[in-house]
TrEMBL record:
<feature type="binding site">
    <location>
        <position position="27"/>
    </location>
    <ligand>
        <name>ATP</name>
    </ligand>
</feature>
<comment type="subunit">
    <text>Homohexamer.</text>
</comment>
<dbReference type="GO" id="GO:0005737">
    <property type="term" value="C:cytoplasm"/>
</dbReference>
<feature type="binding site">
    <location>
        <begin position="132"/>
        <end position="138"/>
    </location>
    <ligand>
        <name>ATP</name>
    </ligand>
</feature>
<feature type="binding site">
    <location>
        <position position="108"/>
    </location>
    <ligand>
        <name>ATP</name>
    </ligand>
</feature>
<feature type="binding site">
    <location>
        <begin position="19"/>
        <end position="20"/>
    </location>
    <ligand>
        <name>ATP</name>
    </ligand>
</feature>
<dbReference type="InterPro" id="IPR014729">
    <property type="entry name" value="Rossmann-like_a/b/a_fold"/>
</dbReference>
<feature type="binding site">
    <location>
        <position position="97"/>
    </location>
    <ligand>
        <name>substrate</name>
    </ligand>
</feature>
<keyword id="KW-0460">Magnesium</keyword>
<keyword id="KW-0548">Nucleotidyltransferase</keyword>
<keyword id="KW-0547">Nucleotide-binding</keyword>
<dbReference type="GO" id="GO:0005524">
    <property type="term" value="F:ATP binding"/>
</dbReference>
<keyword id="KW-0173">Coenzyme A biosynthesis</keyword>
<feature type="binding site">
    <location>
        <position position="83"/>
    </location>
    <ligand>
        <name>substrate</name>
    </ligand>
</feature>
<dbReference type="InterPro" id="IPR004821">
    <property type="entry name" value="Cyt_trans-like"/>
</dbReference>
<feature type="site" description="Transition state stabilizer">
    <location>
        <position position="27"/>
    </location>
</feature>
<dbReference type="Pfam" id="PF01467">
    <property type="entry name" value="CTP_transf_like"/>
</dbReference>
Amino acid sequence: MTRTESEETAVRRAVCPGSFDPITNGHLDIIARAAKLYDEVYVAVMINKSKQGLFAVEERIDLIRQVTGEYGNVRVESFHGLLVDFCKQRDIPAIVKGLRAVSDFDYELQMAQMNNGLSGVETLFVPTNPTYSFLSSSLVKEVAAWGGDVSHLVPPAVLSVLRERLPRP
């Protein structure tokens, strides 16, 4: 099967969505892996007005831009509403999600099926690096708030801001 000229020049896009409050090394691993597979990777930072995060959306975007700066094909934007609408507006046919455990799969499969049913957007599941299989932003914030060492769990720029933001016990 031969590809047409337009298929060969089409830009392959994907999105890695999340709240990223804050971005962790686990998130960064999934973004980096997606950046190797796609021409353009959007990191979509979810705006949830009903939740008060540790970091404002603008701060999260800035941190993500700092730690993904080495990847020339990663764009960081905020979004609210349906992820499939974000995808439609940017002609993104694929969502890339990391899976830490079977419990993630149950929820993510439902989301993937709903997103596909709504718009035809596909979801690709990437198994998390075992080093980060337990990692979540919530856990990082909790450990850091109690003075625990999270330096191996977040990029240095995030660690610096976490230390400023969270008072030591």
